[in-house]
């Protein structure tokens, strides 16, 4: 098993929490892991990404090579497109459909969505609406996205849910249950896409 | 214990487990998390001896305090980003001459590709410059293990050890096996020979001769420590010297192949015997893979016969600038390219920006309006979040060089006849390196306005304590700025007229004045409000 995952978003959106949960689940599966993060200046509203690599064999490079990512998981649709050169020909894009507009020249959102949709393997979802429908707060939207990526990650659904429970445990039962509900909502949305 | 740690955190845990007594540092990407990890660990400590871990005012004070702790026989760690090495260079270079008593490890975190920096200088030059051993771990486990070994070696060889990491090492996570027990801290002890720490020329000459003589020991250790690993390939004509995390990018492609000869470097000075063996085994071309500047590539050229070709960043085998990548190594190793999708034409740049509601925004809004009232204003910026004032929509600053330069460059410009000459500097940068410049201004009553944008924290690196919080006016009075020319405003839209009036008055005053625009960082404010709610 070997998965190269690019987590993308805008500084402050919470891509690192997604990485933390996947990492937790990957460790419980006995996988090797490397995760390169962006700290510093870009966190002030700039584009941010994290390279997450999981493998049953030891991993050497901290960075993913162009053309070698299995999956782009993005909290913002234009940010998903930013990393296209990294994606394998048959790689997956799992992205929120909600634009984060903090620049004057943000492209037409319909065109952005059309570009994502033109890609053969993609999942587009309104993470905010799905979080709300699941009774979870807006901060849990990133967990909806994580749930939608589970079928493509190659990590067992139950192990991932257990990972969510461990990561959020210190915040209390209510927070745990809401985040689990958010993950399940995302998972329901995409679980049949791989077939 | 098995833990997922950032490279920075692995260094921190390695230092704690090595019996650290104090960490001394000024925040700077990508080094900040080392000290933060130790601070967090200390905040949870229930037993055992405390570790001193309060932020220092700058890298020089950090290095000197660490040397003082080492003098007393205890283990000290100094951490900084690469440009911090310039700030502490005087203390660092001379610590190599004094040598150490307790173990002293200096971590320099380089930032090739300048993700969060103004240059990509390579700290390995400082190791060579000071003639001390330098370590460069290739992964998080080595970062943990080598930090512990660095303290042991420092005490064994009586020298500071430089630990060089780069952004990808510092800010990447992996599983690290840590020890279950930590070493006890050293007891306090005086240096055997106090003259080692008194750098009068007569003593310093003796110390320096000892340092020169110790070079052979440093090389021997680099040859035998196990940190530099030589493997002869089945095709030994083609050899690779891979330093630090450069090794990972090579092995990403060559894992499982033993065709090429490989010399993995994680300790300097270079292991002469291993390089000689590589040549004796038949190396005809050596590819040097190193993060940062072509330090080893240049050195190797002087170490191998001229018939051996040395290639790397200088010859174009690898890019001359920027950080390494698996992509760059694929090309350098002559492997077939992967199919790569074209970049999407819709994607727009998303540069970082000042936060919504940030006080720097209101400060710049007022400053820009007032500056426009003068025919040729010059505004000298400095290092911090407010450097983003150079970008749209503000375009407010005309220079930004290094910590504290705003104050003294404004002074130099005023000395040259410029008016208005205005410096914009954050509170933490002001205490780091602005106070001495302000004293220069006061001594010649330079016609400058020093605008301290005080958000009560070190914002850009994530909100660490700022050394002068609550005392900036007193510091300015103490330096000699007349009290009536130390003005304080609150940068909020409703105060715009008042701020502009204060700025006008101080620009029109012929002499040194300080305007402090003070409002808490919006990020730390949110954090404080959240903490209070609990």
Describe the structure in your own words.
The complex is a heterodimer of chains A (195) and B (534). Chain A is of the alpha/beta class and 195 residues long. Chain A has a single domain (2-98, 109-189), classed as Pyruvate-ferredoxin oxidoreductase, PFOR, domain III (Pyruvate-ferredoxin Oxidoreductase, domain 3), CATH 3.40.920.10. Chain A is built from seven helices and six strands. In chain A, strands 2-3-1-4-5-6 form a six-stranded mixed beta sheet, sandwiched between helices. Chain B has a six-stranded mixed beta sheet with strand order 2-3-4-6-5-11, with helices on both faces. A five-stranded mixed beta sheet of chain B has the order 8-10-9-12-13, sandwiched between helices. The two termini of chain B are 32 Å apart. Chain B has three domains: 2-223, Rossmann fold (3-Layer(aba) Sandwich), CATH 3.40.50.970; 229-332, Rossmann fold; 359-526, Thiamin diphosphate (ThDP)-binding fold, Pyr/PP domains (Rossmann fold), CATH 3.40.50. Chain B has helices at 7-17, 32-44, 59-71, 84-87, 89-98, 124-130, 140-157, 167-170, 201-224, 246-254, 272-280, 295-301, 326-332, 359-371, 405-415, 427-433, 435-443, 472-479, 496-508, 522-533, and strands spanning 2-6, 20-25, 75-81, 104-110, 134-135, 161-166, 172-177, 229-231, 238-243, 261-265, 267-268, 285-289, 309-311, 378-380, 421-426, 448-454, 486-489, 513-518. With 534 residues, chain B is an alpha/beta fold. In chain B, helix 19 links the parallel strand 17 and strand 18 (513-518). Chains A and B meet through strand 2, helix 2 and helix 3 of A and strand 1, strand 7, helix 10 and helix 13 of B.
Q: What's the order of the H and E elements of chain A? A: EHEEEHEHEHHHH
Q: From the coordinates shown, what is the CATH architecture of the largest domain in chain B?
A: 3-Layer(aba) Sandwich
Give the overall shape of chain B, derived from the CA principal axes. globular
User: Number of DSSP strands of chain B?
Assistant: 18
For the record, give the distance between the C-alpha atoms at the N and C termini of chain B, rounded to a whole number: 32 Å
């Amino acid at each position: 098993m070997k998965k190269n995952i690019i987590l993308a978003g805008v500084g402050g959106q919470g891509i690192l929490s997604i990485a933390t949960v996947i990492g937790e689940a990957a460790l419980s599966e006995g996988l090797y892991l490397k995760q390169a993060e962006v700290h510093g200046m870009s966190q002030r509203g700039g584009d941010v990404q994290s390279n997450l690599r999981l493998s049953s064999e030891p991993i050497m490079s901290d960075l993913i090579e162009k053309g070698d990512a299995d999956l782009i998981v993005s909290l913002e649709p234009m940010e998903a497109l930013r990393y296209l050169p990294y994606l394998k020909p048959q790689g997956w894009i799992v992205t929120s459909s909600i634009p984060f507009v903090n620049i004057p020249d943000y492209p037409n959102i319909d065109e952005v969505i059309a570009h994502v949709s033109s890609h053969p393997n993609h999942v587009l979802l309104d993470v905010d609406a799905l979080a709300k429908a699941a009774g979870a707060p807006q901060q849990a939207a990133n967990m909806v996205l994580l749930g939608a990526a589970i079928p493509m990650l190659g990590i067992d659904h139950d192990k991932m849910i257990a990972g969510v429970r461990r990561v959020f445990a210190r915040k209390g039962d209510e927070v745990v249950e809401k985040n689990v509900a958010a993950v399940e909502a995302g998972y329901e949305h995409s679980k049949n896409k791989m077939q | 214990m098995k833990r997922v740690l950032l490279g920075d955190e692995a260094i921190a845990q390695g230092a704690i487990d090595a019996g650290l007594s104090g960490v001394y540092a000024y925040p700077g990407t990508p080094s900040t998390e080392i000290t933060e990890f130790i601070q967090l660990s200390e905040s949870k400590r229930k037993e055992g001896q405390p570790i001193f871990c309060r932020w220092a005012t700058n890298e020089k004070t950090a290095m000197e305090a660490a040397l003082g702790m080492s003098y007393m026989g205890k283990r000290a760690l100094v951490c900084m980003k690469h440009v911090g090495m310039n700030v502490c260079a005087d203390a660092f270079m001379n610590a190599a001459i004094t040598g150490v008593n307790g173990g002293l490890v200096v971590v320099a975190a380089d930032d090739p590709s300048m993700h969060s920096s103004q240059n990509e200088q390579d700290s390995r030059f400082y190791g060579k410059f000071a003639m001390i051993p330098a370590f460069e771990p290739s992964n998080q486990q080595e970062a943990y293990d080598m930090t512990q070994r660095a303290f042991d070696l420092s005490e064994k060889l009586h020298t500071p050890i430089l630990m060089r990491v780069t952004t990808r090492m510092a800010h990447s996570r992996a599983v690290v096996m840590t020890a279950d027990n930590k070493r006890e801290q050293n007891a306090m002890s005086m240096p055997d020979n106090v003259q080692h720490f008194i750098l009068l020329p007569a003593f310093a000459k003796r110390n320096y001769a000892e340092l020169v003589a110790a070079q052979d020991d440093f090389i021997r250790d680099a040859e035998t420590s196990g940190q530099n690993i030589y493997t002869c390939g089945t095709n030994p004509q083609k050899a690779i010297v891979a330093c630090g995390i450069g090794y990972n990018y090579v092995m990403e492609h060559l894992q499982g192949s033993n065709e090429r000869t490989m010399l993995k470097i994680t300790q300097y000075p270079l292991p002469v015997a291993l390089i000689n063996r590589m040549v004796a085994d038949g190396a005809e071309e050596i590819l040097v893979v190193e993060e940062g500047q072509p330090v080893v590539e240049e050195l190797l050229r002087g170490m191998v016969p001229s018939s051996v070709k040395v290639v790397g960043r200088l010859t174009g085998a690898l890019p001359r600038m920027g950080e390494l990548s698996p992509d760059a190594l694929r090309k350098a190793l002559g492997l077939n390219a992967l199919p790569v999708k074209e970049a999407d034409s819709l994607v727009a740049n998303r540069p970082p920006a000042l936060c919504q509601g940030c006080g720097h925004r209101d400060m710049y809004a007022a400053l820009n309006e007032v500056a426009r009232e003068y025919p040729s204003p010059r505004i000298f910026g400095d290092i911090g979040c407010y450097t983003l004032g150079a970008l749209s929509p503000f375009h407010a600053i005309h220079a930004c060089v290094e910590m504290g330069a705003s104050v003294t460059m404004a002074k130099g410009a005023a000395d040259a006849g410029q008016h208005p000459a205005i410096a914009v500097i954050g509170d933490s940068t002001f205490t780091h390196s602005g106070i001495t410049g302000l004293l220069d201004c006061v001594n010649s009553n330079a016609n400058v306005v020093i605008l301290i944008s005080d958000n009560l924290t070190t914002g850009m690196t994530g909100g660490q304590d700022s050394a002068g919080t609550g005392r900036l006016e007193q510091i300015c009075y103490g330096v000699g700025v007349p009290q009536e020319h130390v003005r304080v405003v609150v940068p909020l839209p409703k105060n715009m007229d008042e701020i502009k009036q204060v700025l006008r008055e101080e620009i029109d005053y012929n002499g040194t004045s300080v305007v402090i625009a003070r409002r808490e960082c919006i990020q730390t404010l949110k954090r404080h409000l959240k903490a209070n709610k609990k």
